[in-house]
TrEMBL record:
Residue ranges occupied by any HTH araC/xylS-type domain in the UniProt entry: 160-257
Protein name: Helix-turn-helix transcriptional regulator
SUPFAM superfamilies named in the record: Homeodomain-like, RmlC-like cupins
Keyword Transmembrane helix: no
Taxonomic classification: Bacteria, Pseudomonadati, Pseudomonadota, Betaproteobacteria, Burkholderiales
Keyword set includes ATP-binding: no
Pfam family, one: HTH_18
InterPro entries: Homeodomain-like_sf, HTH_AraC, HTH_AraC-typ_CS, RmlC_Cupin_sf, Tscrpt_reg_AraC-type_HTH
Keyword entries, A-Z: DNA-binding, Transcription, Transcription regulation
Length: 261
């Protein structure tokens, strides 16, 4: 289907094709409020970048990656700038051996081509040839390697306020003691709880929030030096080093890997 939006009734039932695919483009930023549906969903980007909020974290979906949401998982979606992408909705029975938790996946060229072909099918029953393509899509979801684009959120409401403030403004330079005062707890307690609830120390979590925003800015074609300065890094070289350590590629190499718009 050529539109990114589907009738909610279609994605809240397992009736119909095992996979339903929607693909399209948006020239303006787009957002959806929190919702859930009965089908599993794999959403991917061909141009631009998505952020997906789930109950316990924030996921970034840069081009060449996708995020998987099992059936009935709460989520909200926002695009950043012009966006071209697709969504695969998988009937709930077919999700039994797919990932059981939300995750980001590295997509293959084979998966993208199969998805774009399936986007032309509409909602008609699948013939034997289309059924094979649908099963190929399911296999690619099943075996796609995970990608490190998640940002887990703490459960404590006080820590959540701190975390969301840093997501909104990753360049905020307040130190640990200042954030602890804002959360009405000691710096030791903030550090201990942040680590226990997210798996990251506070400093590491804040660094990851900055890198998530860096992906958005790189997808918008901002210069690497501007990204580094806007996010509060001491120098472009410090930003490049941290980015490469986290994602296995320099910012410039990451941008070259993005599909052409």
């Amino acid at each position: 289907m050529s539109d990114l939006t589907l009738d909610p009734a279609r994605i809240n039932t397992s009736e119909g094709p095992v996979v339903i695919v929607a693909a399209g483009s948006e020239e303006r930023e787009r957002s959806s409020s929190g919702h859930r549906h009965a089908r599993g969903q794999l959403m991917g980007s061909m141009r631009g970048l998505l952020s997906v909020g789930v109950e316990d974290g924030q996921w970034i979906v840069p081009a060449i990656h996708a995020v998987w949401l099992p059936p009935h998982h709460f989520h909200a979606v926002r695009s950043h700038g012009p966006f071209s992408g697709w969504s695969v909705y998988v009937a709930e029975p077919a999700c039994a051996d797919l990932p059981q938790r939300p995750c980001t996946l590295r997509t293959s060229g084979l998966l993208r081509e199969a998805v774009l072909r399936a986007a032309t099918w509409g909602l008609d029953p699948l013939d034997a040839q289309r059924e094979r393509v649908a099963q190929l899509i399911l296999d690619e979801i099943r075996y796609a390697p995970p990608a490190p684009f998640g940002l887990p959120l703490p459960r404590d409401p006080r820590l959540q306020r701190v975390a969301r403030a840093l997501i909104d403004d990753p360049a905020d330079q307040r130190d640990l003691e200042s954030w602890a005062r804002a959360a009405a707890m000691s710096s030791r307690t903030l550090t201990r709880r942040f680590s226990a609830e997210t798996g990251f120390g506070f400093v590491a979590w804040r660094q990851r929030a900055r890198l998530m925003r860096a992906l958005e800015m790189l997808a918008a074609d901002k210069p690497v030096t501007m990204v580094a300065m806007d996010l509060g890094y001491a120098s472009a070289s410090a930003f490049i080093k941290l980015f490469a350590r986290e994602f296995g590629a320099t910012p410039a190499a990451y941008r070259r890997a993005l599909p052409a718009s």
